[in-house]
Amino acid sequence: MATEHDDKGIPHPRETTILRGHEAAQKDFLDAYNSERLHHGWLICGPKGTGKSTLAYHIARFLLKNPPEQNEDSGLFGEALAKTPVESLHVDLDDPVCQRILSGGHGDLITVERSEGDNGKLRNDIVIGDVRRVAKFFANTSAEGGWRVAIIDSADEMNRNAANALLKILEEPPQNTILLLLAHAPARLLPTIVSRCRRINLKPLSTSDVVNILSELHPDLDDNQKYGYAVLCEGSPGQAITLSFHQGLELFQQILTLLSKLPDLDTVTCHRFAEELASRQQSARYELFCDLLGRFLNRMIRHASFIQQGQVSPVATIMDGEGELMLQLATAMPLDRWVQVWEKVNQLFAQTDGLHLDRKQIILNVFDLLARSVRAT
Q1: pLDDT tens-place string over residues 162-204
Q2: What distance lies between CA 344 and its chain's CA centroid?
Q3: Which one, of 377, 363, 342, lies nearest residue 255 by Cα?
Q4: How far is CA 173 from CA 39, 110, 176, 278, in A?
Q5: What is the pLDDT of residues 214-234, one digit of tens each?
Q6: Where are the strands (E) in 47-168, listed by range?
Q7: CA separation for the pair 306, 62 (Å, rounded)
Q8: How do the residues of the chain divide into helix, strand and coil, expressed in percent and rounded to 5?
Q9: How many Å apart are CA 373 and CA 163, to the nearest integer?
Q10: Which of 48, 89, 187, 209 has the fewest Cβ atoms within 10 Å of its own Cβ atom?
Q11: What predicted TM-score, i.e. pTM, was given to this entire model?
Q12: Dist CA 74 CA 37 (whole Å)
């Protein structure tokens, strides 16, 4: 079967049958399942790209394959029989339930995401009409006689009206239904929603886990590339896949080369670099540039803070010369000044979308800011 990818090179979570690095999260859910105390609302939290959607689809496949009612066996005289605890959410890829989910045709699973507005563009929020689809879905009887599962990705993108509509569902959940709410920033959710859900927190994955995921999805990458992407993504396999899809290490090397000239600027190279990323066809790589430069500044500040305290830095370097460059820049001015510069850089990037400014000029302004800041010390 062909694998469906989005424009960031990431397979759709419903196609990802291997879940790495989240054994504790799986155990939390299976403990509730095995003890027959399955909560109707689950809040799956964690940074972007750590596997929240993948876990949700694992749970959905498992429940639709193994509805709790079917496990309530009894003996000849009605006594409860001892059950063998389930230890994995895994469902075989060729299982009919898995196949129907893969095709998007399972009648007892609904997914809610941001929908398109009247202008044909993706809305900024999940709106009340999206959540009402869940209420209608739960009001119907099960299409296949088992449980009904709803995934909201991401719940922290709901507007106020949508959140209130969801709260009503959580307050009076229909029988044999489960809501899986994904959240990058759970603090944005109504406290009443959070209080009615059982929470699972996903942590960033280890470097080795991310390397293994990249090995499975992109076996063409060499070991240095896989390690570089794994370190750069800081525990987010989704972001590592996006970086590799857009040749992020090559772009990262270009950024380091330009930064190595500070406080001077290679004006010709800088203009050519900005020109290449300014076109609409390069939107994804422009966004990647913003992310990578922010990541480098963040890593440089953390690295220097340990070094200046006489401690060993836990910030792993990705390529030759990066550690020396981080130390060189960090000693060029105090760390509190670097934090201010980092914040100004993020503000400049934010203006691109908010004010629709010229991308080339934003890139040139960012490098000019960095050069002037280092030169002023």
Answers
A1: 999 999 999 999 999 999 999 999 999 999 999 999 999 999 9
A2: 25
A3: 363
A4: 10, 15, 9, 49
A5: 998 888 999 999 999 999 998
A6: 109-112, 148-153
A7: 45
A8: 55, 10, 35
A9: 44
A10: 187
A11: 0.84
A12: 18
